[in-house]
Records
---
Amino acid sequence: MKTVLHHDHEAEPTLADYDHGPLRDDYLTVTLLSAGLAQILQRRTRAERGEPNDEALLPAAWRVGFSRLWWRCAAQGEPPTWNDLQLLALCAQPLITWPVQLDLSESDQQHALLVDSRLSEFAEQGARLARTDVEAEWVENRVHEALRTAASANGSTDREVELAYAYLRRYLIDHAVIADREVLALERRFPATDNAERAHVRRLIETAYRARPAAGPQRYLLCAGCRNIVAETAPQCGTAGCPGGEPAALLLEPLAAVYEQHRATRLFMHDPGLVEARIIDALSDDDTLAGRVRVTPYPGVDLLDVLIEFVAPGGTEPAVLETWGVDAKDQLSAHLLGRGFVWPRSMICKRRFLALPTHRAKQPGYVKDLETELDGRVAGIEVVDETTLVRRVRARAKELNP
């Protein structure tokens, strides 16, 4: 049998949905302000499209965040005199410049909540933690739903669904731009259709990418490190932690269109997925681990990023000696990552790792801040960088199978 996958949609939160935690918890305050900003920007986008808006009040998250910030200022002897518009202007300034002392890490205080009238990466992370249905997260949720639906429709057993999901999930990480010819190839590989005879995998591509009409050869420059599209006039990749390198030319020959990834797909699926892809490749391509270690990408349809099983050599069904689980995360703020991190209860592993990309682990105070937030929230989690994790897997494989 196979598991039917689905995604639940939630209504916009109200005042009662937000946690009125201790006023000194400034991460909660900043998270609420970020969530409110996300909803304000979403309403502005709808207004620009000419869509009706019957929401007279500012978003609940913004109102709670403003109130908490007011009391925080008052506790420091300086009740604020600014209004909502002035606070919106402040959001474009680094938090360290605000007229209130916020108990945030030194690195997090350097961030603003708005950059060029859009949510900053820090604010995006906060809004996601608050489970705010911002437009970017809405696209992300639709991509996840389409991905799960395509995998479920193209597998008759749980294992087949898991394999289809892993292939398609990795496809989004490896391909920032594709031609319509590649979409046709995907349809041949995953032919299941919906009631309208439309391939589920085509719906996934049309959700995760933007189609652009194109005739004749199309040339792109791709970053050597992360495969994101870079501009020919300034071939610099802005992806965090990307090792870069000489951009490589990609020549596509579409029939009628090319597909370029949505910003939300890139921000929340492609870029964060690079670290898990590197871990999977490092373990899967290591000949010394062949027959000793079994690597499963996205076990249980993405309950974790990697399941690592140490097995006894020989036999058609080798015995599993030990199981490790890995959830890889690449997020700007260690504190917000720690607050939002959970381990799936159904994934029972002897060792449980939260794996970080090297550039995050090397950031001063990042690992310590993350472990501080995890303490008392999630037990038994080992925080490691990607290189250390791979090294530990190799060492353990030798210990179990000398």
---
Amino acid sequence: MKEKPQHLDIDVFLNRLSGDAREAVKLVVKLSDYPNERELLDALGSDPRFREPLRRLLERLPEIPGAPPWLVQFAENQGDPSLVPALVTIWRARRGSMSEQAGQALLKQGDRVALAALAEDAGEVVGLSARLALEALITLDPSHAYDRVRDLLARKPGQTSTLLWLLARSPATLEADPRFIRLAVEGLRSEERSVADAARAVVEGALPPEGKLQLLREVGPAVVSVSQTAEHAEALAWARAELDALIARLPAGGWKRAPAEAAAGIEELEAIVGHVPAAVRAFYERIDGIEIERGKPRDRFIIVALAEVLAAARAWNERYSPRTTARSLVPLFHWPVSPDVATKSGYSGGPPFGFKAPTTEEDPQLDLRDRPTFIGFAKRAGRLGRAVRST
């Protein structure tokens, strides 16, 4: 039975690492055999004595078959400028994940030499490497970044979606140079799905609500809306026709006509929550809530006013900060449509019935027991209107 290696002394480790590069790689790969592996790895990533042997090892790394990419991480942890030339060599060796690790280490290093090496290759790399190179290009010279990016995209239009996804995660860049926002607006018009999706992420995720509202005022919702497609336009036309017919059947006093500021309220909702479904948009363009009395208070038919939806959206935005919080930690917005029975009776009830937003459904299903769509639920008010007029 093969005996497990004993404790490896730090000085012995340092001496062996300073020898032949191939043997050094084999040693590091097999550190898990030693009981003090954690101590050895910590030394490799933080002890200044290891910088020089690490530099020599990195210089040879692209030449060594089977060298694991994660060895580059130790250079990133050391944060030593003297390691930059070796990292640039690995970056330009185009060795897949090994080169990507080197690019991440150079970006984290952050000095001009490291950033310039990444930025210089922005038009030559793809995938994660392209993102790293573009991020370095922007970080290196923020005041001229936009012009350099535009020149690059003119030569390499395939990098557009990569850049836009980067901007979606960098609100500071958008704030520093609003021309990048215009770049995103151009992307929204793209016929390429990847570009349009990335541009949408910039407008909806990286911009604060007030920023998106300003953009909506300047270029119009037809450009910025997340669903300005033929399907959305068709759904909107259908919903408007359905609601115009519904209004003719509603009892007087049972509904309110939408105020002039309704359009601004819908824009704000889209800025905070995301896509406003066609059926809901068409409703609040025309109607500011429905309330029809029928017997007991609990039996009233209600669709809440736009102001109530806005208040809920603002509270959700303030509580969860969806623009700056990891998406996995932010629940979908529960769009209120109609209060539950207890609330209508004047008691402290549960949450209103509604739907989760944002949604791709243009006429979303509500979480009522029979799962009506928004338009289907609103039409019930028309049937109630006929009953009220007949009594």
---
Amino acid sequence: MANRKPLCAAGQPMPRSLRNRRFRQRSGAATLDYILVLCFILPVGAFVIGMGGRIMRLVYEMLAVFLAWPFM
């Protein structure tokens, strides 16, 4: 079963030219993935990590105010 050839819509084996075209359409996609990671994901991650301490401090202060306001 692992050696089955991909089938066309008509149920016939896909010609070799069509099978190769699938891979040619994806050529260069790895480069775009690297650009996405380097230009978008890493800066966003650095921003989130950098702001993490401030976010935790603000959440702590907000919780303290919510818990303390009835006693003021």
---
Amino acid sequence: MANEMQTQETAGINTISDAVGKVAQMQMDLVSNVMTTSLEAFKSVNKFSMDLAVNAANALNQVLEGISAAVAPKK
């Protein structure tokens, strides 16, 4: 009888330990997924910002070329 009670207690402790382990693993997976998603979002925003800066520089260059062509003496 005592042995059966000890077996039930051990089973209960094992079940609780498994549950705590699964919750901890799920939290680690969640943190990992959030970090991965954040990094991907940052990379996308960074690429967009760089493309926007390059396009703005190209547009400014074209405007300056147009002004230079208008101001330059005609031959």
